[in-house]
């Protein structure tokens, strides 16, 4: 296993002002000062940035960045990915500068999502993380930024790609009952976080169903829920506990359409984990506003 964590994501949104207000006032992220009018970036911890939002009309996820330990691991991953028949592209000096990493390369996954592998992220310990909304902290470190759930038309193809080319492991499977039938959800890990990537088997013009960030205390999560309600944010799912990672969370729609899961208290996994399956996504809660 060479990939250590999901370290950053890039989104595209038409309304950057709305995204900035949502990210700082509701989610409690720290905006990175910048002169670039076309991109806003946010911090969750000592990293220089974790979430970037570029101005654009796709309103979707545009790239994700996975971290490896160093140069040797980056070279090994490039060879492994190319051996699976995937074309990789070296990162230009300009791209490395934008991302603030020592080196990277990029390629596309089966749904055309740009994946960047890198080492050497920028740390800014001299500028301590300070949430504008008073969040006490986000759970990152060895578990990385959080997780992303991708909408994929062919789950078997995407699973094979993330297992064989990237070396992620299947954690568990949920067969989710929907009005349109059973949807298969596959959860994959690369560190103690229960899942870093999940694949939802459904065709969609969008790549991203939601991304998840995890806070340090249940009060951080509950206070964010209150801020979302007060701000008039569209809630996708009320507070609830997931059956597989045991995360207590709520889901809100971001200004660019995809949802964010705001969670606390997920269990961690280790090398003794056995793959299991579930018939339901939640133990309790996570009701849509229509149900409540
Ligand atoms: Fe999630």
UniProtKB/TrEMBL annotation:
Organism: Sphingobium wenxiniae (strain DSM 21828 / CGMCC 1.7748 / JZ-1)
Keywords: Aromatic hydrocarbons catabolism, Dioxygenase, Iron, Metal-binding, Oxidoreductase
Family: Belongs to the extradiol ring-cleavage dioxygenase family.
Any GO molecular function: dioxygenase activity
Cofactor: Fe(2+)
Pfam family, one: Glyoxalase
Residue intervals of the VOC domain: 5-120, 144-265
Name of the protein: Biphenyl-2,3-diol 1,2-dioxygenase
């Amino acid at each position: 296993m060479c990939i250590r964590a999901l370290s950053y994501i890039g989104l595209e949104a038409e309304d950057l002002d709305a995204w900035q207000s949502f990210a700082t006032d509701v989610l409690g992220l720290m905006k990175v000062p910048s002169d670039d009018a076309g991109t806003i970036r946010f911090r969750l911890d000592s990293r220089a940035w974790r979430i970037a939002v570029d101005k654009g009309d796709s309103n979707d996820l545009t790239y994700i960045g996975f971290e490896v330990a160093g140069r040797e691991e980056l070279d090994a991953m490039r060879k492994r990915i190319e051996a699976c028949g995937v074309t990789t592209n070296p990162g230009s000096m300009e791209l490395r500068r934008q991302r603030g990493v020592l080196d990277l390369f990029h390629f596309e996954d089966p749904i055309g999502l740009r994946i960047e592998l890198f080492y050497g992220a920028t740390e800014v310990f001299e500028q301590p993380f300070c949430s504008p909304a008073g969040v006490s902290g986000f759970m990152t470190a060895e578990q990385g930024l959080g997780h992303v759930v991708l909408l994929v038309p062919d789950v078997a193809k995407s699973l094979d790609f993330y297992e064989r080319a990237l070396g992620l492991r299947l954690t568990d499977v949920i067969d989710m009952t929907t009005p349109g039938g059973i949807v298969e959800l596959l959860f994959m890990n690369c560190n103690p976080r229960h899942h870093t990537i999940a694949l939802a088997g459904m065709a969609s013009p969008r790549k991203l169903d939601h991304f998840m960030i995890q806070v340090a205390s249940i009060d951080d999560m509950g206070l964010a829920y209150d801020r979302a309600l007060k701000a008039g944010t569209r809630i996708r799912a009320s507070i609830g506990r997931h059956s597989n990672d045991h995360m207590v969370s709520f889901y809100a729609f971001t200004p660019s359409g995809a949802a964010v899961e705001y969670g606390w208290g997920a269990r961690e996994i280790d090398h003794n984990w056995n793959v299991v399956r579930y018939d339901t996504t939640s133990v309790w809660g996570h009701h849509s506003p229509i149900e409540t």
